[in-house]
Amino acid sequence: MDSTHSAAASPEPSTPQCLAHADRFRGDRSISTHLERLPGVGTTRAQRLQPLGLVTARDALIHFPREYKDFSGAHAFTELSEGEHAAVSGVVMDIASRTTSRGQQMLTVLVKGKDGSVRGVWFNMPFMAKKLSVGMRVVLASVPKRVGHVWEMTHPEVRVCADGEEQGKEEWLAVYPLADGVRQSDVRLAVRAAIDHAGDLVPEAFPAAMLAAKSLLPIADAFREIHFPTSVATMAASRRRFVYQELFMLQVALRMHHSQKETRHAAPALPINAKLDSRIRQRFGFNFTAAQRRVCGEIAADLARTQPMNRLLQGDVGSGKTAVAIYALLATVATKVASSVPDDTDVAGAQVGEAGGMSYQAALMAPTELLARQHMATLERLLKGSHVNLELLVGGQPTKRRQAAIDRIASGEAQIVVGTQALVCGSARFKNLGLVVIDEQHRFGVVQRGTLQQDQADPHTLLMTATPIPRTIAHAVYGDLDVSTLDEQPPGRQPVGTYRVGPEQLDAWWDFFRKKLREGRQGYVVVPAVEESKRGLESISSAFENLSNGPLEAFRLGLVHGRLSAKQKQSIMEDFRAGELDVLVATSVIEVGIDVPAATLMTILDADSFGLAQLHQLRGRVARGGVQGICGAVIASAEQSHPRIDAFIATTDGFKLAEQDLRLRGPGDLVGTRQSGAPPMYLADLLRDASVVAEARRDAIELYDHDPALADESLQRLKELILDRWGETLGLGQVG
Ligand code: ADP
Ligand code: MG
């Protein structure tokens, strides 16, 4: 029997939609009451709970369980099986305590049931002895193991049964996300107190008719059942209610956002004729792959229309997304603002501001300054001899330079603008923005979309990512989004040979790495580090020392990490690119997008500390040229299981890995909320809840088409919640 049900995906504290403005009083009860004032919680426990962000009753209510354990005590002793979670009930027959040879306090409790017995064992938990006494009826729940003839459970959960309690009453026990020094029992107690005190004070978001039509649990029931389920069915129903609400509200918000965009402005039409198409493609030193040609065609069709393009381009690492982006950028700046007729001489020719008039502007946004500068260099190389005005806008620029860039962006003189978040966060304002391309979009998250705006028209938008997003999720997070896929690598690419390097193979690996370096190859060594911390920096430096005095002593090494200035990083990258360094020792600053085709070797140290998508991105750095790349994933222990490393070794197909990744870690990061600062998804697991996503989307569209202003009396609470949760993020100001 599957006795563990996962529930919450993201336990990050912040105000969820279901509770905003819910601060309503009933007598002296309020959801803002501090936990320490609730019966049974007490000051000490309340203090212990603070690291979890649990301060008020409200906080406890929305501290959703991570999973549930079957605690019915309904398992027969005869059905126990090694390694499978189970709960059994019986009577305490014996309690013994002793000190082990290692000096630990060991408590052993024998519990005997109808058809067998089990031994509960606790180390250094003296309070358990006080809690239990011989003759008590209890339920023990844990993963049992067979020790000799006896079933044993180490540190099982214990529930003491009330006198005469019918068996299997309280079947499921919530398991909560914890922090250091907080016990499950602390959280459970606080949640119980919060439910008793204020569980019924949260106003209902949905109109009664909708609750009925969708068979949704009313909010008070949902709170009670998600924390203290009376059955598997109510547990599932309560979770469904929160997931549905979350996704439904997001979908309505996206509708609002979308229709505002549609009705506010049209985008400029940027037609691309055959002549322009071939002129642009001739600029590249290679022929476009069939996939690149197809995707360029899809983009061209969008750009020709005045409805703003809203397209996601997904393509595995190295599939050549940049070329497609540049194609679109050049097409944009080839169009004159006044005439909207493409002037194909412009890409190679005419000066802006001359008789031909002003061209539309295009922006390319990258997640890091290093990547922005690399894109800039690529464009400079490609556009040598043309008169297209390129502009760079990044945080690391001197103020004066930045201001000059901002001025040229505002005047329309800057045609292609490459930048980082500085493009949206700063005071840059475009005169005639026709197209925005956002590279490695998954690094940005939901927020940045639509924030790069101007007064006259909405730009076309192209999002690019190497982390493919399942269609359901794309819908959930971005609403209506067209998807293009680069499903082909440029010719001559070979899958990177990927190896797991355990401690015993490490010496041999370095021998191999050095041999390849001596053959004239270049390579990376990636070290993991928390770059913001001082200790992180020290660990990078010492890793570098170890390499340059150890295995890579004979070679020219460079070091880049996040703490260097953009200029320092840039100059080291240039040395590496120019072949003046053999090995670049780097943190994951090189993870995204860096393109040095001559570098074909990679060693990833402590590979198990990286995420799967990150590993694949890293490996992508050495899959660029015609020479087969080689990548070693170094792990500290060979015994431990490393599901991510196994997946990483097994395939070089980024789309397959992304799917695996989603399963291994949940989609929290994928939607990018962590980087963007947008509120996290609370319970919804977009992959598992794909059908609810679809349902919520249908319902949201129906509601919105019916009552776009959410003017109906019964929808006021819902509207309030939606604006509160998404108003700022999605710029829904005008609706409220
Ligand atoms: P990604 O999709 O990961 O962003 P890039 O756009 O950086 O990939 O392209 C990876 C490398 O492939 C670059 O060096 C680029 O010049 C090269 N490239 C792109 N398209 C082609 C092509 N059609 N033929 C040959 N090389 C190409
Ligand atoms: Mg790229």
Helices and strands in order, then pairings?
Blueprint: E1 4-6, H1 42-49, H2 57-61, E2 67-70, E3 86-99, E4 105-112, E5 117-123, H3 127-131, E6 137-142, E7 145-147, E8 150-154, E9 157-160, E10 172-175, H4 184-198, H5 208-213, H6 219-227, H7 232-264, H8 274-282, H9 290-303, E11 310-315, H10 321-333, E12 361-365, H11 369-382, E13 390-393, H12 399-411, E14 416-419, H13 422-425, E15 433-438, E16 460-465, H14 471-478, E17 482-486, E18 497-501, H15 506-518, E19 522-526, H16 534-549, E20 557-560, H17 566-577, E21 583-586, E22 599-604, H18 612-620, E23 630-634, H19 643-650, H20 654-665, H21 673-676, H22 690-706, H23 716-726
Parallel strand pairs: 5-8, 11-16, 11-17, 12-14, 12-15, 13-14, 15-16, 18-23, 19-21, 19-22, 20-21, 22-23
Antiparallel strand pairs: 1-2, 2-10, 3-4, 3-6, 4-5, 6-9, 7-8
Helix pairs in contact: 6-7, 7-22, 7-23, 9-10, 14-22, 19-20
The chain binds adenosine-5'-diphosphate and magnesium ion.
Task: Characterize the structure shown.
- The strands form four sheets. Strands 7-8-5-4-3-6-9 form a seven-stranded mixed β-sheet, with no helix packed on it. A seven-stranded parallel β-sheet has the order 13-14-12-15-16-11-17, sandwiched between helices. It has a six-stranded parallel β-sheet with strand order 18-23-22-19-21-20, sandwiched between helices.
- It starts with a strand and ends in a 10-residue tail after the last helix.
- Helix content is 35%, strand content 17%.
- Helix 12 links the parallel strand 13 and strand 14.
- The chain is of the alpha/beta class.
- The chain has four domains: 1-66 and 184-203, Orthogonal Bundle (DNA polymerase, domain 1); 69-175, OB fold (Dihydrolipoamide Acetyltransferase, E2P) (Beta Barrel), CATH 2.40.50.140; 274-486, Rossmann fold (3-Layer(aba) Sandwich); 497-651, 3-Layer(aba) Sandwich (Rossmann fold).
- The chain is globular and about 95 Å long.
- The model is unreliable at 1-26, 340-346, 348-355, 445-454 and 666-680 (pLDDT under 50).
- It is built from 23 helices and 23 strands.
- It binds adenosine-5'-diphosphate and magnesium ion.
- The site of adenosine-5'-diphosphate has 20 residues, from helix 10.
- Magnesium ion binds at residues 321-322, 439, 593.
